[in-house]
């Protein structure tokens, strides 16, 4: 079984796989974002494998794991004697990825000084190794990934706006595991199969209560955490069956401030929860509007000596209209930034896009 294939039957993953195959055919830059452990590297590898560059090795670099002082040398290479310790000429990752794909993981951790030089390479297709006076031509397809919101980093002057727009030609958002719970059992089977084959053991069975526990857990560490939990439980098991007890001590406690928002605790779908969040926000907006109307009416009656009207019938506005107006107002407030608008509304960006299409905004 392929260790790096995309696994999932949820609609989110099926849609992402379709987009992944589509963008793979070009050399356009792709920015993948999502929480740690959701499998951003797997999507990067899939894009490369479906591309015309698949005959060459994908080069991966974790920008957050390389010290700032040597990151530039690692990316662009150096000439012998260019700095203390440079005893030989050395190719950088860009040169190694020539005619292939370079995956820049944790791009949000890259220092601003290195960002400037990265942008220059992306714009010109040429790099200048440290200590060299001659540029080198490279043909590299860039896929970048981050668990940060780069728009926030740009606003905070921690990430260059021009580089951000250069990287985000195509943006893929990988949802956390808790938002696609229908994929948990598939991953569980996948990890158990792989572990059993690698360690030459009989594949253990999983009880119904174990599946229920795994499906109800919050998974703050996402797929990476699930993999570790499955492998640890299998390694520690003294029988050929994994039960809920096999996993209970391996799962961390869900933070209290997140418990009340857990979809599984409420036994509702993510879409239903998103709708409820919107409606609760709309109710608050409705209250504010009523207060403003009452305040304005009170001022008008006082200033114009008008007798207050008793038993006033308030206008009934359909919830769909309120929902549409709330979305329009959020988009206006954020100057069309859908990610910020979805955050203000308390819904997912995917739901916002669906609502925009539904209401023809």
Keywords:
two-stranded antiparallel sheet, 51% helix, single chain, Arc Repressor Mutant, subunit A, 3 domains, Rossmann fold, alpha/beta, 361 residues, flat, five-stranded parallel β-sheet, Helicase, Ruva Protein, domain 3
Summed up, what is this model?
This protein is α/β, with parallel strands linked by helices and 361 residues long. It is 51% helix and 9% strand. It has a five-stranded parallel sheet with strand order 2-3-6-1-7.
Could you please describe the fold and organization of this structure?
The chain is an alpha/beta fold and 361 residues long. It folds into three domains: 11-175, 3-Layer(aba) Sandwich (Rossmann fold), CATH 3.40.50.300; 178-252, Helicase, Ruva Protein, domain 3 (Orthogonal Bundle), CATH 1.10.8.60; 319-359, Orthogonal Bundle (Arc Repressor Mutant, subunit A), CATH 1.10.10. It is 51% helix and 9% strand. It is built from 17 helices and nine strands. The strands form three sheets. A five-stranded parallel sheet has the order 2-3-6-1-7. It has a two-stranded antiparallel ribbon with strand order 4-5. A two-stranded parallel sheet has the order 8-9. The protein is flat and about 80 Å long.
